[in-house]
Amino acid sequence: MDSLVPLELIEKRIFFIRGHKVMLDTDLAELYGVETFNLNKAVKRNIDRFPPDFMFQITKDEMDSLIFQFGISKTSGRGGRRYLPFAFTEQGVAMLSGIVN
Questions:
Q1: Would the pLDDT of 71 be above 90?
Q2: Which of 40, 41, 58, 61 has most Cβ atoms within 10 angstroms of its Cβ?
Q3: What single DSSP character describes residue 49?
Q4: Above 60 in pLDDT, residue 50?
Q5: In 1-101, which residue ranges form alpha helices assigned H by DSSP?
Q6: Model confidence at 2, in pLDDT bands (50, 70, 90)?
């Protein structure tokens, strides 16, 4: 039996960036039970399925704003990320579910 993720947990991971409700690659990787690196690798292998209205890479200013407003983890330091996260819109999340699982 598959375990379900509580709705509140998902709602806390939805951010409003560039006029879109999005989820970050790190949060989606955790929800799908895969490493962020592997999630992004699968996206790159299927990049033609992810136009700009499905997915985009956030800027440093957008990341700093998320860190300040929501207290999310920083992208660097102590083994952190080397690249800024990708943000997936609702359509991007739907497409992602088809290539990750």
A1: no
A2: 58
A3: G
A4: yes
A5: 7-11, 25-32, 36-45, 60-70, 90-100
A6: low
